[in-house]
Design a protein that fits this description.
Blueprint lengths: L3 H18 L1 H16 L22 H8 L2 H4 L11 H4 L18 H15 L6 H15 L7 H19 L1 H5 L2 H12 L4 H18 L1 H11 L4 H7 L8
Length: 242
């Protein structure tokens, strides 16, 4: 769906289905998550020239800025009042400014983002957690795709859900995949989008509590020592116990 809260709610509902119907439904959902994560490869750099809906200045700031500064969209165009569109939009309860019949097709990144929510929900089901861990490389690969404007929204969701996924699949399994996510997380920390940057900082804080601050710092240092300056601003290094 085009609406983030609907995607998140659907993930919760599907996880409840898995809890109710067991292994067969888990297998089906895991396959759908795999397809959704792989589907980010089909995301064009721009669909229908800024087709993403402006659902909020912070969340879709990147898309909105591009669209607002597109001279082709705002030069020599006919001006309409809200009321003048009423005949085409339909009158009464089903029409007017709040007509919800207007809906754009879902984009691949939106399906991928919904699958990240579902991955987090499935990670809390013990019988599905190992399969969730096996899909983490695909989630990391999706996070590395920055060729489309809305990638910051997907990164925000991944940063928000990653600590929960880690706790769900177990510390042992998660640590094997941690490095796959370090570049996307630190990219997000320095992102101009405030919501994405804040989500990444909070992600590092939670991972520090979950894994231990020195373990996280050690992994970051091995992966890319240049990230340590950013990490230490968010979660200061702890002295080793003697």
């Amino acid at each position: 769906d085009n609406i983030p809260s609907v995607r998140q709610g659907a993930a919760v509902a599907l996880a409840n289905v898995a809890r109710a119907y067991g292994a067969s439904s888990e297998e089906f959902l895991i396959q759908k998550v795999r397809e959704g994560l792989e589907g980010i490869e089909k995301q064009p750099a721009s669909t229908e020239k800024y087709s993403g809906l402006d659902k909020g200045p912070a969340t879709y700031g990147v898309v909105k800025k591009l669209r607002d500064n597109d001279l082709d969209l705002h030069t020599n165009q006919t001006m309409y009042s809200c009321g003048s569109l009423a005949p085409k939009m339909g009158r009464g309860r089903d029409g007017g400014c709040m007509d919800h019949k207007f809906k754009k097709p879902a984009e691949p990144w939106e399906l991928t983002e919904g699958c990240v929510h579902l991955l987090a929900e499935l990670s809390q089901i013990p019988t599905a957690s190992r399969q969730v861990a096996e899909l983490l490389p695909l989630a990391a690969q999706a996070a590395a795709k920055h060729h489309y404007p809305q990638h910051v929204v997907l990164l925000e969701t991944i940063c928000k859900q990653l600590p929960a996924i880690g706790r769900g699949v177990s510390k042992q399994l998660f640590k094997k995949r941690l490095e796959d996510f370090l570049d996307p997380i630190f990219y997000s920390v320095s992102c101009d989008n405030q919501l994405t940057s804040s989500a990444a900082a909070e992600c590092l804080l939670q991972l520090s509590h979950f894994l231990g601050p020195n373990i996280l710092r050690g992994r970051v240092e091995m992966h890319n020592p240049r990230y340590l300056e950013q990490l230490d601003k968010i979660t200061p290094a702890q002295p080793f116990a003697m």
